[in-house]
Here is the input.
Amino acid sequence: MPSSPSRRGFIAAGSGLAAATALSGCSALASADSGPDTLIVHTQLGTTAPGSATYTAAVKAFHEENPGLRVKNLVNGDDLPQVYETSRLARKEPDVVMVNLYDKTLAWTEVGATVDVKGYLDDWGLRERVLPEALDEWTDGKGRLRAFPYFATNWPVAYNTALLDRAGVGSVPTTGDQLIGAARRLRAKGIQPVTVGGNDWTGQKLLAQIVQTFLTREEARQVYTDGDFSGSRGAREGIDYFVSLRDAGVFADKAQGLTSDTMTTQYNTQKAAVQSAMSSALAKVPAKTAAHTTVGGWPLAPGAAHDRPTILRSYTLIGFWISPNGVKKLPAVEKFLRFMYRPDVVSRFVTESGRDMALVTDTVSGDFPLVAEAQRLGDRVGQVLLPDLYVPPTATQPLITATSTAFTRGTSAATVRSALESAYRTA
Here is the structure.
């Protein structure tokens, strides 16, 4: 695990967030003075995020079953971590935070911005509700459980078989050579091959997946912890493989400037034949496109460290974090989390929103066929490491900048390695 910033470092970083407070944090600061029967929940569910409508309905049901308690939601998007940190610095933070384990949030429990919830999980009898893999990912290097796990995600590769057929590609590619051949045929028909947000986190994740082609999970963990992409033979070979695919035209035109929104639009409107798509994106694929989509893994090169095409999988998409203010309202927090962990509530997120869960459930996403198909991939695919838990938080955004460099056609493998390593030196 990367070393976490000190408490002083957290406070110093937060001092630069005054603008965020003025724009979007005022409600958070004001609301934290509420009484013990009002639970303040800071969440990303309430925007367009999949699961928002189900969450709103669940809160309504919670109110009906607990007339003496009220949940007040504060909603933010990608800026939630900054807004929360600002409110925490003023000691007026919300009681519960619903956000993923990534970038800034990696340090929260270490610096006291949130509390270790392992004891509460056990005291409230909820441990058996959580998948063991999720507990592992949410537990830090000192044995602290950062949050109550909730959402997970599969991250396979979606292939539009109708477009592949139109281009004369007989089957879903499983090797790099097959992928290059498919890209040439697709381009000849005016179809973009692999669409990817090369200018944001989606491209960062796909690049990391391809870099790991020749790395074991342990080797990948080391590389993404220390950022030494040149000192690892496997990392060098993975970057060489990425560059060979890129310069053969596998990725969509000008991929280095595309975003996740562009990527999903190109795939959903059948302008591109392939995308690396987490389950929340799979849930949004229109029925017309989904009818011609199959999901699988990323094609491998000869000599790969894996024997099957690979996917990403993570159990850290959203968890329930308890703040120091939340500790003062533990009875209310316990009732809320027990409710959210109930099998019937968990099942609603699966059936109504197509969410993958970090909790034990037998419910299948019947109305979201691609999500369900991804859940059934099993041993037909291999799994590589999602590096988010190991990348130092200060390197996260520089790595996205480096990703855009990597997706720029003609950029040498040596330049890609240098850009990735510079992200860590900047950190």
Observations:
- Residues 1-32 have pLDDT under 50 and may be disordered.
- The chain has two domains: 7-153+314-365, 157-276+392-426.
- The domain at 7-153+314-365 is CATH 3.40.190.10 (D-Maltodextrin-Binding Protein; domain 2).
- The CA atoms of residues 54 and 348 lie 7 Å apart.
